[in-house]
Amino acid sequence: MGLAITIFVLNALYISINTFRTMLVVKGHQFLAPIVAVGEEVVYVLALAIALDHIEQSTKRGGLCDWVRCRDLYRHHH
């Protein structure tokens, strides 16, 4: 549950920064907007890295591939 909340908060932060950056671009802040964009991408990459790390750990434990074994067991018993 903590992972989902972390990713949700990071995604909300990313969207907020994106909205702020868009406002800066519209208002013509040519120096500040790219700096905010770097922060935006850092948040995005951080959230992506956390999610991909969790997927990698799940596959090492058989979490995502478990459905294949369950499917094969179901076919053999029915």
UniProtKB/TrEMBL annotation:
Using the record's annotation, list all stretches that form the DUF5698 domain. Answer: 19-57
- Keyword field: Membrane, Transmembrane, Transmembrane helix
Q: Name one Pfam family in it.
A: DUF5698
Membrane-crossing ranges are: 31-52
* Protein's name according to its UniProt entry: DUF5698 domain-containing protein
Starting at the broadest rank, the lineage of the source organism is:
Bacteria, Bacillati, Bacillota, Bacilli, Lactobacillales
